[in-house]
Write a structure and sequence with these properties.
13 helices; alpha+beta; Fumarate Reductase Iron-sulfur Protein, Chain B, domain 2; 3 domains; Ubiquitin-like (UB roll); 11% strand; 5-stranded mixed sheet
Length: 326
């Protein structure tokens, strides 16, 4: 047994004006988990400590917290995996916060309503168009594999609470809801794919900046950022009005395929459409300074080879995804 100091986020809106941290010394061994530590504190040291505990099997996601700054499931996280509990004469410290301090309502418990509202906007249900049918509506194993991972989400809120875009943009659906949306948008039985992708676009799908914190923070090993990238491709393929970011990407791809390089003069027109009028003064300045891109773009030699490299990159990505599924 060893003694570890736990610095725990405390906040009771009925008594505290601001949150604070309180330290507790707890004996642990090599198998002691975070949730067991919290139970010990509540049972023996401070009965007012408030937290959520669910299945204890890493399935429900309700015990997600930030332990030393990283999102973890308290029921499966062992203290010995984070600090050296055998260090002689030392009392290592571990800090425990709610999964989102911005939504804390009491100690380690958060208000989940914003996350559930985002999920509702993602339409997390199957619309098979077969309400009156009693016949099986089965999927092939290959089709099941295509959504494998997305359906493993346990809604612990680790990804969305870590997402900078979600914190800055209240209209952004967030990686958790978009992962669930992806699960049904990819389901071949679903009849509402276009509506889902429209909901994703209205939820600022294209505002994802690919910081990959959602991947780093997910305790189940899901890759929400990759699912969001696939939703981008699906939205373009389905003709969903994608907004500026997607139009920018579409023109880039079109120009690359056609000439082997970027047609810079058309980029603002294709991206901004009517909004390009606001850049007329800047355009005049560029022309006067000789900075205007050429009016006519000449194809580079063997420009099809450039596009061939793009196709090869896609093949490599698909092969990597198939390997992960296997």
């Amino acid at each position: 047994m060893a003694v570890v100091i736990f610095e725990i986020f405390r906040y009771d809106p009925e008594k505290d004006q601001d949150p604070y941290y309180k330290k507790y010394a707890v004996e642990v061994d090599e198998k002691t988990t975070v949730i067991q530590v919290l139970r010990k504190i509540k049972d023996k040291a401070d009965g007012s400590l408030t937290f959520r505990k669910g299945c204890g099997c890493s399935i429900c996601g309700i015990c997600a917290m930030r332990v030393d700054g990283k999102a973890r499931l308290a029921c499966k996280t062992r203290i010995a995996d984070m600090v050296d509990i055998k260090a002689a004469g030392e009392h290592p410290e571990v800090r425990i916060d709610p999964i989102s301090t911005a939504h804390a309502i009491k100690d380690l418990v958060i208000d989940e309503s914003i996350f559930w509202e985002q999920l509702k906007r993602a339409m997390p249900w199957l619309n098979s168009g077969r309400e009156d049918s009693v016949e099986p509506n089965q999927m092939s194993q290959e089709e099941v594999d295509s959504i494998d991972g997305a359906q493993d989400c346990i809604h612990c809120h680790a990804c969305t609470s870590s997402c900078d875009t979600a914190q800055a943009d209240p209209d952004f659906l967030g990686p958790e809801a978009l992962t669930k949306l992806y699960r049904y948008a990819k389901d071949p039985r679903d009849k509402s794919t276009y509506e889902r992708l429209s909901a994703a676009t209205e939820g600022n799908l294209w505002n994802c900046v690919r910081a990959f914190t959602c991947i780093d923070e997910c305790p189940k090993g899901i890759s929400p950022a990759d699912k969001i990238a696939e939703l981008h491709e699906m939205a373009v393929d389905k003709g969903v009005d994608p907004g500026r970011a997607a139009r920018h990407a579409q023109h880039f791809i079109h120009s690359l395929r056609k000439t082997g390089k970027l047609d810079e003069k058309m980029m603002p027109i294709k991206t901004l459409r009517a909004g390009v009028v606001g850049f007329v003064p800047d355009t005049i300045k560029m022309v006067s300074k000789g900075k205007m891109p050429p009016l006519f773009i000449r194809k580079i030699d063997d420009h099809k080879e450039v596009w061939h490299l793009v196709e090869l990159a896609k093949d490599v990505k698909e092969a990597e995804q198939e390997k992960e599924n296997d």
